[in-house]
Design brief:
Length: 205
């Protein structure tokens, strides 16, 4: 399949070793979900999404010219404990309006935010924009969302925002799941955290 590259081909094309690849996987630099088992003539082989794997390894190799592995991990790996952005940095993101960032500062007063918290804020901002919510309604969404973010320990999840009976709710599940809701529920947003995280990391230099 043209969309995937075998592990053997990847090692050869990028001129890296098996040990390097799996160390980067272990450190979270390459998501575990990218390693897909597939039937092959010899029994089973591991493939990865070609474009994403090549892009990520090129990024790692580029950063290795300037940074230590530990510094690269801090830039690229998903970690639910370590803050990834200071509050002031939220103003520089294209995903949040100035009014939304001001509200985050006024209501939550954190000096910094972790990756799950950041992804929740971006998702709730999009849901609020799509539904033309007020800043106050955006804050109300975050009051539900940020406690959920504390339970997220991997990036391969999706968050769904929906309305039911005039109230707003959220659910978090594995990214490969896509539930069907009955006609009484209205989906306001369906956000794949891995996709958002990858877009954020593309800007890392």
């Amino acid at each position: 399949m043209n969309d995937y590259i075998s592990k053997k081909e990847l090692l050869s094309e990028m001129n890296i070793s098996y040990g390097q690849l799996y160390r980067w996987k272990r450190l979270g630099l390459i998501p575990e979900s990218w390693f897909i088992k597939r039937a092959a003539a010899t029994g089973q082989e591991t493939v990865l999404p070609r474009k994403r794997a090549l892009s990520r390894i090129n990024k790692i190799l580029y950063l290795m010219e300037k940074y230590s592995v530990e510094e690269i991990v801090s830039k690229l790996a998903f970690d639910k404990e370590t803050p990834v952005i200071a509050f002031e940095g939220l103003y520089e993101l294209p995903y949040l309006s100035t009014e939304q960032v001001n509200a985050i500062g006024n209501y939550f007063k954190n000096d910094s935010y972790t990756a799950p918290q950041l992804l929740m804020m971006i998702s709730m901002a999009n849901a609020a924009d799509q539904s033309k919510f007020s800043v106050r309604q955006f804050v109300d969404l975050l009051r539900f969302a940020l406690p959920l973010a504390e339970k997220i320990d991997k990036v391969e999840v999706r968050c769904i925002v929906f309305a039911a009976g005039g109230d707003y709710h959220l659910t978090v599940m594995d990214s490969n799941q896509s539930p069907d809701f009955d006609y009484g529920l209205r989906v306001l947003g369906n956000y794949n955290f891995e996709t958002i995280w990858e877009k954020l990391k593309e800007a890392v230099e």
